[in-house]
Amino acid sequence: MKPAGAIPLGYAADDDFMLRIGGERVDALIAAAGDTPLFVYDAALLAARVARLRAAMPGQLAIHYAVKANPYPPLVAWMAALVDGLDVASAGELHRALDSGIGAGRISFAGPGKRDRELEAAIVAGTTLNLESAGEADRALMIADRLGRVPRLAVRVNPDFDLRGSGMRMGGGAKPFGIDAAEVPALIRRLIAAGADWQGLHIFAGSQALDAAAIAETQAATVALAASIAEAVGAVPPLVNLGGGFGIAYFPGDVPLAVEQVGAALGETLAARAPILAESAFAIELGRWLVGEAGVYLTRIVDRKTSHGQVFLVTDGGLHHQLAASGNFGTVVRRNYPIAVANRFGRAVEEEVSVVGCLCTPLDRLGDQVGLPRADVGDVVALFMAGAYGASASPAAFLGHPPAIEMLVGA
Ligand SMILES: *Cc1c(COP(=O)(O)O)cnc(C)c1O
């Protein structure tokens, strides 16, 4: 038997072992949706997550939600009411963010390869563009000039450091993201001289870190870098976006991130910041940490078979909806996400099974030799940690099955 990750807090079953999500029974949720597979997002867990983060972080720190983690419109609208800003990475996400009702002034748009029409959409809306290159800066200034608008421009910095223990490296050395730190002051002076509304700095050094000390160290380095850039420019950045990088405990042995420890350290870092940043506002932008644990992927067993003594539960879901759980989204070694039989939730382990999807590829494995209560055709498998980088980060068109249904419950 291979271990699976720990089921996140906040999930429980009725007396008949039926899992509840967002206060609703899984059988009722599936009946309401009309079919499986289904992503269910728990609105109360999302709100609790934001509340915990606010309590942990220094009072002046703004909290932004990175829409790419989960762009499902009802979830974006729910998050928009809880956080201080939305970060988007395409014109498509920008429109979803605007549709959420949050003001354009509380949206920022990062990401490499913005096309002219995306820059134009942001400038017309009055959203902040986090510039990823000098060339993009030139195009933004030209477009703004043509439109007769004053563009809101921030500069994304490629720092010379990296977030230690980060699952995905986004800074340090040659990168497609941001502008090398040494070139940033001259660019900002140019933006200001061109009459742009300079909004500040965006420094994002990594993702999926569980080590509070590593995040605290990166945040301290980020604040120091922002100060040295501000000194070199001779201007106060209105906002310093410190990035994110907060990870969640997907796998066996992972210890959840101590955000309270990160917040305490950040409080000290901000209290000791250089005088040039005294009037600056600060933000962090998180995706995965805010929404990952609040989502569950439900898929029904359509076949049960044995091959060379191994039991396979074949489901109607798969990697076309939940690529990350199959181990094919940025992981080197495949490990098991937290998994359960939704209508036997909390029952004892009875057998070792492999849970696979319905795609005709050996990559489509949702649980590899996991211990579960006995499950048969018609039962429902629940895969946890499905709130971030699930439906929108999976190759939904692969093999021509229908897309997963999504639901936000408890809002
Ligand atoms: C992807 C991304 C995020 C969100 O990262 P998480 O690991 O989901 O928190 C935030 N900011 C930027 C610029 C990103 O590209």
UniProtKB/TrEMBL annotation:
Q: Which cofactor does it need?
A: pyridoxal 5'-phosphate
Residues where N6-(pyridoxal phosphate)lysine is found: 68
> Which parts of the sequence belong to the Orn/DAP/Arg decarboxylase 2 N-terminal domain?
46-291
- Provide this UniProt record's keywords sorted from A to Z: Pyridoxal phosphate
* InterPro entries (UniProt xref): Ala_racemase/Decarboxylase_C, DCO2ase_PEP1, De-COase2_C, De-COase2_CS, De-COase2_N, Orn/DAP/Arg_de-COase, PLP-binding_barrel
Q: Which GO terms describe its biological process?
A: lysine biosynthetic process via diaminopimelate
Protein's UniProt name? Diaminopimelate decarboxylase
